[in-house]
Design brief:
This protein has 355 residues and is of the alpha/beta class. It contains 15 helices and 9 strands.
């Protein structure tokens, strides 16, 4: 059996001994692990081919498609983890919320939630409603072998914003208005959403996922005070509900540089850092208490290779100040990104740590 200060031998590889899981736990690794948010997506021609003519929600509920799409970037790029192919609104749709993912727009909700009566009508997610999710995870774990699978769900605030606004929003005006004008209704809504997200994550981990990520994509629209009062308790509820499963928990948001410490305190093991804050500053703000994930600016994927390489190496070096570091982008892979560039980034990260 390995000890915390010894890297286990590669004779019997398992996801629990993978670079990603070990880095998440602050244990020594042979190389910095790397994966990319949205690595299974529109940047890959094989993804576009297999998704042709099939809607997003339908794709997320077919184990054959979910398995193939999740595996595509692992085969192509040699990343250190697979991210479960799904969407943050899948549990809402599975519970019975009338919504669709409109190409070029995003999730659109037929009947937005604005009142306490609307909240009371919001169904909860029964694990029996998503047997396909568990099946997809089991198929993937069998195919991935020692490569860990990351499960994921949307955080209550981001899900609530879609439900209240009726779709994507740049200002989250209705969401913030409800939050402040009717906090009881707000907390009731987020409480239901926290239960949904926790159920969705538990199903994935119990089927074999080795880590999980809670996405709070829109949390950066909030002040620290509003985050602590209106959002953090519900994210903490999600992360706390899966703490007994014993897998690393990643908490990520966009534009959340001022919220990093509070996001960690919500129950994260790893705090995701977007590209607006250096890892050096992030580690300082987190007090060295958490592993970090990030944070290459996706725009640099379009820069000349020497420029990209230099920045990748800088981020790897910055990450060494944290208890653990998982290399990633500071947001998702752009659809226009060259897959060969992503593969080269993986190679650079692995080679950097091997020196």
């Amino acid at each position: 059996m390995s000890t915390p200060d010894v890297i286990p031998p590669a004779a019997e590889p398992a996801p629990a001994d993978s670079a990603l899981v070990r880095a998440a736990r602050g244990l020594p690794v042979r190389h910095t692990p790397v994966w990319f948010m949205r690595q299974a997506g529109r940047s890959l021609p094989e993804y576009r081919a297999i998704r042709e003519g099939i809607g997003m929600l339908a794709s997320c509920r077919r184990p054959d498609l979910v398995t193939e799409i999740t595996l595509q970037p692992v085969r192509r790029h040699g990343v250190d983890a697979a991210i479960f192919f799904s969407d943050i609104v899948v549990p809402l749709a599975a519970a019975g919320v009338d919504l669709d993912i409109v190409p070029g727009v995003g999730p659109v909700v037929a009947a937005p939630i604005r009142t306490r009566a609307d909240v009371e009508r919001l169904p909860l997610l029964d694990p029996e409603a998503i047997p396909d999710i568990a099946e997809s995870v089991r198929l993937l774990v069998a195919e991935l072998g020692p490569t860990p699978l990351i499960g994921f769900a949307g955080a209550p605030f981001t899900l609530a914003s879609y439900l209240v606004e009726g779709g994507p929003s740049k200002t989250h005006a209705r969401t913030k208005a409800l939050m402040h004008s009717d906090p009881d209704t707000w907390h009731a809504l987020c409480g239901r959403l926290a239960a949904m997200s926790a159920t969705f994550l538990r199903v994935q981990v119990e089927a074999g996922a080795s880590a999980l990520q809670l996405f709070d994509s829109w949390a950066g629209a909030l002040s620290r005070e509003d985050y602590v009062r209106f959002v953090q308790p519900h994210s903490a509820s999600v992360l706390g509900a899966v703490a007994d499963l014993g897998v690393p928990r990643i908490h990520f948001g966009v534009g959340t540089g001022e919220l990093l410490a509070e996001m960690g305190r919500a129950g994260a093991d790893i705090v995701g850092v977007d590209y607006r804050v250096s890892l050096t500053d992030a580690v300082a703000r987190l007090g060295g208490s958490y592993a970090v994930q990030g944070n290459l600016d996706p725009a640099l994927l379009f820069a000349p290779m020497p420029v990209l390489r230099e920045r990748v190496l800088e981020i790897v070096a910055e990450g060494r100040a944290a208890p653990g570091h998982i290399f990633n982008l500071g947001h998702g892979v752009p659809p226009e990104a060259d897959p060969d560039v992503l593969t080269r980034v993986v190679e650079i990260v692995h080679e950097a740590a091997a020196r």
